[in-house]
Amino acid sequence: MPIHAVTYVYADRPAELDALRPEHRAFLRALHERRTLLASGPLPAHEDAPAGALLVLDGETPDDVATVLDEDPFARAGLVAERTVRPWSPVIGDWADRV
């Protein structure tokens, strides 16, 4: 399947993010076990950039990937203030042969 790079920008509600983080990570682990999620991790706040995350997923289309991520507990709680989903074509590295 095509690979997609997803970025999240989190809402500035740290207590709610902390409370839902275990459920969010369990959701992501389940996606990884299904081989839908290839990698993910936080993007800490830096200078003028708010905290967020980078996720790399398999999915047929950006809309398919977005639909999967709509079920993320952070998204359901309104804690993802901004999300981008873009096709990504790695040319070097372990995922390059998947393109």
List the helices and strands and how they pair.
Layout: E1 3-10, H1 14-33, E2 37-43, E3 52-58, H2 62-69, H3 73-76, E4 80-88
Antiparallel strand pairs: 1-3, 1-4, 2-3
Report on the structure:
The structure is a single chain. The protein is of the alpha+beta class and 99 residues long. 32% of the residues lie in helices and 31% in strands. The longest helix has 20 residues.
Rg on CA atoms, Å: 13 Å
Number of helices: 3
- By DSSP, the count of extended strands is 4
Q: What fraction of the residues are assigned to beta strands by DSSP? A: 25-35%
Structural class designation: alpha+beta
Distance between the ends = 8 Å
Helix content: 25-40%
Task: State mean pLDDT (0 to 100 scale).
Answer: 95
Entry summary:
The protein has 99 residues and is α+β, with helices and mostly antiparallel strands. It has three helices and four strands, in the order βαββααβ.
Task: State the main characteristics.
single chain; four-stranded antiparallel beta sheet; 32% helix
